[in-house]
Every structure is written in C-alpha cells, then in structure tokens.
Amino acid sequence: MPTAVPFPSPTPSDGPPSGLPPVAIELRGLRKIYRGRDGRPDKEALRGIDLLVPRGSFFGLLGPNGAGKSTAINILAGLAIKSAGSVKVFGIDLDRHPRRLRRAIGVVPQELNLDPFFTPRETLELQAGLYGVPKAERRTDEILAALGLAEVADAYARSLSGGMRRRLLVAKALVHRPPVVVLDEPTAGVDVELRRSLWRYMRELNAQGVTIVLTTHYLEEAEQLCDRIAIIDHGRVVACDEKWALVRRLDEKELLITVDAVPAELPAALSAMGAVREPDGRIRIRYRPSRVRAGEILDRIRDAGLSILDLATREPDLEELFLRLTGSRAAAHPRASERLAPAPG
Ligand SMILES: Nc1ncnc2c1ncn2[C@@H]1O[C@H](COP(=O)(O)OP(=O)(O)OP(=O)(O)O)[C@@H](O)[C@H]1O
Ligand SMILES: [Mg+2]
C-alpha cells in the first residue's frame, strides 16, 4: 500500500463559503489570438469557448496537445489575456474584478514556474502574503505536511525532484483556500504513488465542496475522477456532458457470444445483423443499444439453432469517444500505463 498523503481534516472555517452561486466557472465566447511575431502568423488558440462548471463538480477538461486547455486556464489564472468573450468565477467578472476573481480560484499551472532560490516554506509564505492571508490564518505547515513536503520544507526548490516541485505547485495554489481549484496536468510525469496520493487529495478537496477542474492526458484518470467532462479540440468545445452521458453518446455496444458449436459459415440471419466469427470461435456482434435490445440478438441466435454457453459485453470508453471526436492526433496519447514507462535519459 502506498502511504496516503493525509489531507488536513476540515475545520469549520475550511471549505468554500456557503451560499456560493451554483455555477463555479462560466466561460462565454472565450477567444484567444496569440499575435505572431517576426513575420509568423497569428495563432487562434481559442475560437469561442462556452463552458459552465457547476459548483462542487469534478470537471475534466480534455483535448489533444495544442487544443487550447492551458490557454483557457492561463486566462483564468491571469497569466494570459483573453482576446474576446467573458470569464466569470462564482459570478465575479474577470473584466470588472480581476483581483476578486483571482482570490476565488487556485491554479496549478502546467509549467513548473518556481523560484529555485526559495524553499517550499518560503514559497508558500510568499504566496500567502501575495493573497493577503493574515499570518494567524496561514496553514503553511499543514499544507506542506498534506502534500508530503514537510521533510523538504527548508530545502531550496532547485534541489527538489520533479515530483516534489509538482506537489509544491499544488500546495501554492491552496494557500488562500480557494473554492475552485484548477489543475493543469498535475499528474504528468509523476510516479504511480504520487499520482495516487494526488488523486486522493483532489477527491478529498472535492468532498469538502471545492470545485475541481482537471486537465489530463490520462483518460482513465478523467474516467475515474471526473463527474463532468469537456473535450476541446482546435480551440473549440467538441463535447461537454456528464461522464456517463458522453460515453453513452456513442450508442455502441458489442456482444461476444460463446456457442456450443459454431458453424463454419454463420447463419444468414446472423450475418445480416453484422455478426462475425472471431478467431477464437466466438461470435461478435456490434449493435446500437438505442435500436436493438440485446435480448433480440440472443433470440435470433437461438432461432438459428445455436446454443449459448457464455456471453460478454463490451462498451466503448472515454478513450474511444476521445479518439472519434479529436481524430488520429489523439493516438499520440497512450494509456497511462504505457506513459509511465521511464523516459529516456
Ligand atoms: N505564448 C504563446 N504564443 C503563441 N502561441 C501559443 C502560446 N501558447 C500557446 N500557443 C499556441 O496555442 C495553441 C494552444 O496551446 P495550449 O498550450 O493552450 O494547448 P493545450 O491544450 O494546453 O496543449 P497541451 O496538451 O500540449 O498542454 C497551440 O497551438 C500553441 O502552440
Ligand atoms: Mg497544456
């Protein structure tokens, strides 16, 4: 068992203030054009994004490399300036109250942007100071412990490993107890144990009422953690729904049927339904659950004189939907298990 990174149990002052509006983040017509320099063309990274993140949700923002995820997050964090559209966090408008908006949100950026000459403790104290958290209300030690950084609290950031720096970035985003936490690929390149502890940590925060937005290329991670998912591609939202509804949208299932004796040639009634014979002798039938019931398919098999010994069903997962919606480029994102292989060098 990997050691759990305990999250400090909530005190009455913890968690988001009650009475927050039901929508945590609202993006309307969000556009971003990076101006080309030195004769290079402009890049339209966001082409009109509309997104609503409900309060309390665990929201996955997915998309292939270059889709515009970090651009949207950096706009929320104040690290990039939008070209058009509106951004609100709990109803606070970015154009009108940028500082108030920033207080409502904690962002863990994709880039490791830590000052190498500060220690984790100094980094958190500085960040708390920036947000005007009074000394008495700071919880530096608590956060350091929660993220497994207590032992390196007084070491220079430059001496920390990549995974520890990643944790420090998460810690930094939490010093002002924001009711919304946005994490841009927090588990990229971290080992299995840290990944697990970050998952627990994010779940714990979410259970306390914190709204979480997560970007990740590990689709199983999104499948496990998130309740709502948006997929963006080329700067547009191509899908956004509750997780189960997204996958169901493919309206595809597969039945794998083991029969007592498969005829060399499948009966015509079965071939007409698209049944094929697998090399292992099973019969595979792909069907649309909205049009055909599995029971009807089984009836036809029995009608064809075959006796069913066993059956299995297969449903498409988030990865399949992702691939369909974003095309072949997404094939560059192998499953987490493959990506966890040690990087060369
Ligand atoms: N500072 C910048 N100047 C110019 N173009 C940029 C800048 N930042 C991002 N882009 C471009 O904007 C597009 C969106 O980039 P962004 O970083 O938002 O994608 P992403 O979805 O976060 O990708 P990834 O999964 O690789 O992190 C890309 O084409 C990228 O090259
Ligand atoms: Mg990114």
Ends apart, CA distance between termini: 29 Å
Instruction: Show unreliable segments.
Output: 1-16, 329-345
Strand tally: 14
Query: What is the CATH domain class of the domain at 251-314?
Result: Alpha Beta
List keywords for this structure.
345 residues; 12 helices; single chain; 14 strands; binds magnesium ion; binds adenosine-5'-triphosphate; 30% helix; Alpha-Beta Plaits; alpha/beta
Provide structural commentary:
By secondary structure, the chain is of the alpha/beta class. The chain is 30% helix and 25% strand. The strands form 3 sheets. It has a 6-stranded mixed β-sheet, with helices on both faces. It has a 4-stranded antiparallel β-sheet with strand order 2-1-4-5. A hairpin with a 2-residue loop joins strand 4 and strand 5. Helix 3 runs parallel beside helix 5 (162-174). It starts with 22 loop residues before the first strand and ends in a 6-residue tail after the last helix. The relative contact order is 0.14.
